[in-house]
Design a protein that fits this description.
mainly alpha; about 85% helix; Lysoplasmalogenase; transmembrane helix; membrane; TMEM86B-like
Length: about 220
């Protein structure tokens, strides 16, 4: 990835993180799609140099992620009714499950294979958020639990691509820890300042994960 792209991505990700953590709905709606749009352009720019199946998998990652971002934006800012918020959260989790499965296809094609040794610790980390959900929003467990398993699998595959790829390994962990923080921030954190800091971490780590994962796979 060239320097201009890196600067543009960092700038748009920072803007989206600031807008989202500040709770500015209008600014968040404008800025949040921008980093993913840049990654879409990155995937398209290298399409001729990679197999079609790899480009389709990466394009699917981008598409599902953009859809998930939209649903999560609606869940966070546009509705106060708990049932409506839960509905958008389910849709967001389902969309991101599609993104994780698309990542998994790309990583599988790169030679990665999941193992109990790599998947187990990641499932263990996510078990904490499942415990929090079971107490506070048990109705969401079937969807979010399924999503968590796809995320754990993707993160494990990211650490197992044969050609050394520290970007992929780091990206897999960033994605997992970002999603872990979403549940904890919403149900365990009550201090307003900590909630702002938590949302900043969620967004910053999410955009970092997408940058590392798509960049690592696109440049493979």
């Amino acid at each position: 990835m060239n320097r201009t792209f890196r600067i543009a991505y960092a700038a748009t990700a920072a803007a989206a993180t600031i807008a989202g953590s500040a709770g500015d709905r209008r600014s968040a709606a404008i800025t949040k799609p921008l980093p993913i749009a840049l990654l879409a352009a990155r995937v398209a720019a290298g399409a001729r140099r990679r197999p079609v199946a790899d480009t389709v998998a990466l394009a699917s990652v981008v598409g599902f992620s953009a859809l998930g971002d939209r649903f999560m934006l609606q869940e966070e800012f546009e509705h106060d009714d708990p049932a409506t918020k839960d509905r958008f959260l389910r849709r967001g989790a389902t969309s991101f499950a599609g993104a994780q499965l698309s990542y998994a296809v790309a990583m599988w094609r790169a030679g990665a294979r999941p193992t109990v040794r790599s998947v187990a610790p990641r499932v263990g980390v996510l078990a904490e958020s499942a415990t929090v959900l079971s107490r506070h929003r048990p109705a969401l467990l079937p969807v979010l639990g399924t999503y968590g398993n796809t995320l754990a699998t993707m993160s494990a595959l990211a650490a197992d691509v044969p050609t050394p790829q520290p970007r992929l390994r780091a990206g897999g962990w960033f994605f997992l820890l970002s999603d872990l923080a979403i549940i904890n921030r919403r149900h365990l954190v009550t201090d307003p300042r900590l909630r702002v800091a938590g949302e900043a971490w969620v967004l910053a780590s999410y955009f970092t994960a997408q940058y590392l994962l798509i960049g690592g796979l696109a440049d493979r």
